Amino acid sequence: MGVQVSWDTGEEQPPARRAAFASMTAVTAGDKEGWLALFAPDAVVEDPVGPSFFDSDGKGHHGREGIAAFWDKTIANVERFEFTIRDSHAGGDEVANVGTITTFLPGGYRVDTDGVFVYRVGDDGLIRSVRAFWETERAMATARQVTE
């Protein structure tokens, strides 16, 4: 996987923003173990928030085991990720990032997922929750075959 995280930030950032950047960097590198190490043992990932084909009950993926299964079901099936964060709003132990996740899928397909991606961290800097607000239908409407 190629590494591309486009984000114009300065050196000193709030802990949640640093954790979000580390998460995106691990995903683009295909580093499952490094990504899982960013999460607290009782963390929850909701991506997307609510019921979806990744989470039919809409209750999220719980703990490192559940989050690892989420990786295997979703992230592992993408050939390459590109993250473009257009804006980021930090407050307290959370950050809400506004941007696009571009996924390159087998068969030469590309999908752009616009959304708001909210990370919450604990005092130790580990991710407690990720809540990704995006709409499946909008993302799938961008699907196209590309040659690169």
UniProtKB/TrEMBL annotation:
Domain SnoaL-like: 23-129
UniProt entry tagged with the keyword Ribonucleoprotein: no
Gene3D superfamilies reported for this sequence: 3.10.450.50
SUPFAM superfamilies the UniProt entry points to: NTF2-like
Molecular function per GO: isomerase activity
Origin superkingdom: Bacteria
Keyword entries, A-Z: Isomerase
Protein name: Ketosteroid isomerase
Source organism (scientific name): Amycolatopsis bullii
